Amino acid sequence: MEDVHLANVMVNTFENLVDEGMDLVAVVSDSTSTSKIGSFMAKHPHRVVNVGIAEQSLVSTAAGLALGGKVVATCNAAPFLISRANEQIKVDVCYNDANVTMFGLNAGASYGPLASTHHSIDDISVLRGFGRVEIFAPSDSIECEQIVKYALKKQGPVYIRMDGKSLPVLHDESYCFKPGSIDVLSEGNRITLVGLGSTVHEVVDAGLALEKEGIKAQVISLPSIRPLDKAQLASALGNTPFVITVEEHNVNGG
């Protein structure tokens, strides 16, 4: 199966949900290229609001639309969403429990050589400090579609972290995302490797490399950061004497 860019999955899911009758509006901040929103905008021009390079206005506009009864998604780069619109996320979205799904696109170090101004390595830790926002990090297209559907159909704020790279498919069609649950991709008793988002592919490759050396690794993905079944995670981590977590990497090699 071909590698799939998760932003394309996001947009395809938007289109399908609108076709099913969802009153969805996407808000962008001059980020039509980053969000790959073009096909959705062509089909539903009245369902896309572009506020220009004004991330605070992006979030406040999204909150206002949501409080007016719309299902709202913000679609822009994670570093500008989290850093520039921090107060608006906290006050306008989280304090109001507004029905806004925020997509943090090109998260982590996805922008490579564009360096620290364009990197978002603290987005999860920042948002974990805010109440009433669920946080997810899909690792492939199948998981991404299910997370996007869940987020847009539930009431309340959600942050979905997505890296700027096409990713291989890890799951088959039988996979079922469950908010809060960990995803054990392989069993092992020597060491546990834990990743989230695109780093899951790194730990999967590391697990395969270790297996060739006779070391059986347990590989765990954390698609759901909040909510999180901590007891389930602790139980799984107890299966091995060593644990390595992988949270960030530079997908562009810069």
Can you lay out the helices and strands and say which pair or pack?
Blueprint: E1 4-5, H1 6-19, E2 24-28, H2 32-35, H3 38-43, E3 48-50, H4 55-67, E4 71-77, H5 78-84, H6 86-94, E5 100-105, H7 123-128, E6 134-136, H8 141-153, E7 158-161, E8 166-167, E9 183-186, E10 191-195, H9 199-212, E11 217-221, E12 224-226, H10 230-237, E13 243-246
Parallel strand pairs: 2-3, 2-4, 4-5, 5-7, 6-7, 10-11, 10-13
Antiparallel strand pairs: 1-8, 6-12, 9-11
Description:
It is a single chain. The protein has a 7-stranded mixed β-sheet, sandwiched between helices. With 254 residues, it is an alpha/beta fold. It folds into 2 domains: 4-167, Rossmann fold (3-Layer(aba) Sandwich), CATH 3.40.50; 183-246, 3-Layer(aba) Sandwich (Rossmann fold). The protein has 10 helices and 13 strands.
Descriptive terms for the model:
Rossmann fold, seven-stranded mixed beta sheet, alpha/beta, 13 strands, globular, four-stranded mixed beta sheet, disordered C terminus, 10 helices, 254 residues
User: Structural class given helices, strands, pairing?
Assistant: alpha/beta
CATH level-two architecture of the largest domain: 3-Layer(aba) Sandwich
Tell me about the biggest sheet?
Answer: 7 strands, mixed
Secondary structure tally: strands: 13
Beta-strand share of residues: 15-25%
**Which CATH first-tier class of the largest domain would you pick?**
Alpha Beta
- From the alpha carbons, calculate the radius of gyration and give it in angstroms: 18 Å
Order of helices and strands: EHEHHEHEHHEHEHEEEEHEEHE
Mean pLDDT metric: 93
The fourth-level CATH homologous superfamily of the largest domain is: Thiamin diphosphate (ThDP)-binding fold, Pyr/PP domains
Helix content: 25-40%
| Uncertain residue ranges | 250-254
Number of helices in the DSSP assignment: 10
Number of domains: 2
